[in-house]
Design a protein that fits this description.
Order of helices and strands: EEEHEEEHHHEHEEHHEEEHHEEH
Radius of gyration: 23 Å
Number of helices: 10
Structural class: alpha+beta
């Protein structure tokens, strides 16, 4: 499908070109552009390394190694060709090679990528900030590795193979980068062709259900899955906040609060259950979050009165986000016989926090 410009009241096709013709190379150009801004491939990605190859007896390298918000490693393989070559086979090998990587190893990999003094400390902070977690003890990398194939185009053989592999529990995305020439400018049209964006959520849900039925969860993941399933079910008669949420094996569950940049989260650690409003707006300057928190804090007395208890107001120095939270006793180590009371308290706190913050949040002007 051509790209058009409006010229003199008419649609005129923009000249299509190729990366080869424009002398745009994989490593020197495309890789550097995506390393600097990975968002064209997805807004849930963080680059951990480029040209990663920390394994024996192999000179092969992953073009970009990333992490996503679900604590999954992501292999990004780049080609500038018009058919993608055999990149799916290469990427599958890479995914297998890194599938046993731990969070500590991922952080060390990112620290080497950053370089400089205190790289390990900065890497740990950045990764926890990206995952919106407080401690490495609360995070485990999943063993499911995503693959993103990026090319000037894809052959029917490659796309057929990817569709078949996705039906057999792999998670492979194909993104086409189509170059166009407009005067002296080079335009790049980015299109996700597999899975189709409008079908992606459905396919993820179906695949997720199939995987849940097949795989054996760790003991802790199974605790989280059962706890959140019960909590969601118990909340239905009290609030619609979690009506469309599915259970999860993560230690947190999220709900909307009616405005971008604010999320209502329930979290569970070993000995603590928390309800929080997390403030992070990536579309605004970093100080936007603190200014928003301060505007809410100016109304602290009335907000806490509406909530019915004292809240904690955390600026989280050195991190992009900040939060308002309320903690209660009890965590995932508590026996299941105590879950009902814990769940009822968490749902009640979530309802009260949402009620106390909804109007003040909508009145914020930064």
């Amino acid at each position: 499908m051509p790209l058009y410009k409006v010229q003199n009241g008419r649609l005129e096709a923009v000249q299509a070109t190729s990366f080869t013709e424009e002398r745009v190379f994989e490593r020197k150009d495309l890789q550097q552009l995506l390393k600097a801004d990975i968002s064209p491939l997805g807004d849930d990605l963080m680059v951990l390394a480029e040209e990663y190859g920390n394994w024996e007896d192999s000179k092969r390298r992953i073009d970009l190694l990333c992490l996503d918000k679900q604590a999954r490693l992501v292999v990004v393989e780049l080609k500038r060709t018009e058919d993608g070559g055999h990149m799916e086979l290469q990427a599958i090998r890479y995914a297998a090679m890194i599938s046993s990587m731990t969070l500590d190893q991922a952080i060390s990999t990112y620290a080497k990528y950053l370089g400089g003094e205190d790289a390990e400390t900065k890497a740990t902070k950045d990764v926890l900030e990206f995952l919106e977690e407080d401690s490495v003890d609360d995070v485990e990398l999943t063993k499911d590795v995503r693959i993103i194939l990026v090319s000037g185009d894809f052959s029917s053989e490659l796309t057929t193979a990817v569709i078949w592999l996705n039906k057999h529990d792999l998670d492979i995305t194909c993104v086409r980068l189509k170059p166009y020439k407009l005067g002296d400018s080079l335009l790049i049209d980015t299109v996700q062709i597999i899975p189709l964006p409008e079908a992606a959520d459905y396919e993820v849900k179906i695949r997720g259900k199939e995987q849940e039925a097949k795989k054996v969860q760790t003991a802790r993941q199974e605790i989280f899955r059962r706890f959140w399933a019960q909590l969601i079910d118990r909340s239905k008669s009290k609030t619609p906040l979690l009506a469309n949420r599915s259970t999860t094996t993560d230690h947190w569950l999220s709900a909307g609060i009616g405005r971008y940049g604010f999320s209502l989260n329930l979290t569970l650690t070993e000995n603590r259950a928390r309800v929080e409003c997390y403030i992070r707006n990536d579309k605004e300057p970093d100080d936007w979050n603190l200014k928003a928190l301060q505007q809410l804090k100016n109304q602290r007395e009335s907000i806490e009165q509406a909530f019915g208890a004292v809240l904690f107001w955390d600026e989280l120095p050195g991190r992009k986000g900040c939060r308002i939270h309320f903690d209660q006793d009890g965590g995932w180590r508590n026996p299941e016989s105590e879950w009902v009371d814990m769940q009822d308290q968490m749902v009640d706190s979530m309802i009260r926090l949402e009620g106390a913050l909804r109007n003040p949040i909508h009145q914020i002007k930064v």
